Amino acid sequence: MTSYMIGVDVGTGSARAGVFDPAGSMLANAKRDLVIFRDDSGRVEQSSEQIWQSVCEAVSEAVSLAGIDPGDVVGIGFDATCSLVVQGASAGVGDPSHPERDVIVWMDHRALDQARRINAMGHAVLSYVGGTISPEMETPKLLWLRENLPDIYESAENFFDLTDFLTWKAAGALDRSSCTVTCKWTYLAHENRWDESYFREIGLGDLATDGFSRIGKSVVHPGTPLGNGLTVEAAGRMKLSPGIAVAAGLIDAHAGGVGTVAASGGAEDATLCLGYVFGTSSCTMTTTEAPTFVPGVWGPYFAAMVPGMWLNEGGQSAAGAAIDHLVKMHPASAETAAMAARGGKSLPQWLADRALELAADASDAVRLADQLHVVPEFLGNRAPFADPHARAVIVGLGMETGADSLVSLYIAGICGLGYGLRQIVDTQAGQGVRVNTISVSGGAGGHPLIRQILADATGVEIEVTACPEPVLLGSAMLGAVAAGVHPDLRSAMPAMSTIALKCPPSAGDIRAIHDQRYAAFLSLQSISRDIRLGADRLSQ
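Structure (tokenized):
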């Protein structure tokens, strides 16, 4: 009898499930869209019940599509965005007329002031988040709740990272993953403790007084089997057998890292490969043997992705979302999107395909950007400046309104994301953390044009794994470890993932073009920051 594992990935816009065998081959997957609320004040909210319902439906459909006996599923693993679930509170986290909205989504920036005040205190734990805490992390959000919605804060039974909420719903276990609480809650995994003084200093001392019971008294490593396995209730909703292994989970980007950075056919050494998860946002995952402190880059985090190793995490708050926003600004956007839809494509996919038609090859497509330059920091700079107030810059626009000029803008935006990635790679190299390859995962990075531009923009070879869904695969690996199919995560990574394609960077004229454009990117980014800081000083 073959054993199967399920990987569940909950992103910003959808919940997905995939069925895998022990070798990492995906038999089937299914998807459900998620409802999301956002407004212009920076608030972004979701419903945990709608998310859970979507997860259960996706799992059930994926197993059905795989054509396997549900009784042959032995383990399930979860990953999700680092959104905050306020469980069991008297109402929701925003509009009183919507009590179902109990999730503050990762990209919600309502806690900007709280993050600023926490950073001004300069507590020692901040050195493990790159020196600056982000409003995307959970303690600023919790402080916002306590100050602005005290009844909701006090009445909440638990505060979960979304991944830990899902494993709680699946197994009934309150254990938190060392990945989630270390990366987003300031847990010190290398010392196996919370720092009480930090919580008391920032105004969340009640959590320490309660023994951290509402945010995680028990913290375990990813892949650890939880509780007594899948509960009867969860099994009924997923149409699986009760008692199958439920693994402690990962943040979605980290699952992508697990699914890619030690794949067979490459170096099989996580320290030599940077994981780049390119979705709504982007995340960079860099593994080291010893802790390395890189200002502006989150971490170092112990055992947050690869057991026994350290992790530095960078990326940008808007990546695929930045490209979507950028192209919608162009006058040809609506017409071109309609044309793409008639061909069964998304607008970005159509633009990438059109660029390949217009250029001699994928590397040559950079010439289509011509004088257009984009610094796509629409939602701030996550790394290496940890500046949520940074904003995008677009330079070189003319009066062209046709679809091909939209292609040019699109290419300039993709190049801008590539230069942001290069900036993170260079910043980490300056602290002695160097990589040989970049492994790309996430839906936005699936197109051959994107992969080649990223290779050319960074000057680093891009690797692509054989599994078309490496984030789902990373979560399935957790289920495999929890079920004992593989002895540990380090063994599962090369056993279930293989390199399928390598994209080396171009040299010669193409390299020179990207070097010039990268220099322009850095200049525009610096000028924009100087202008904003000058305006801030004048307004004080």
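The first helix runs from residue 48 to 66. The chain is about 40% helix and 20% strand.
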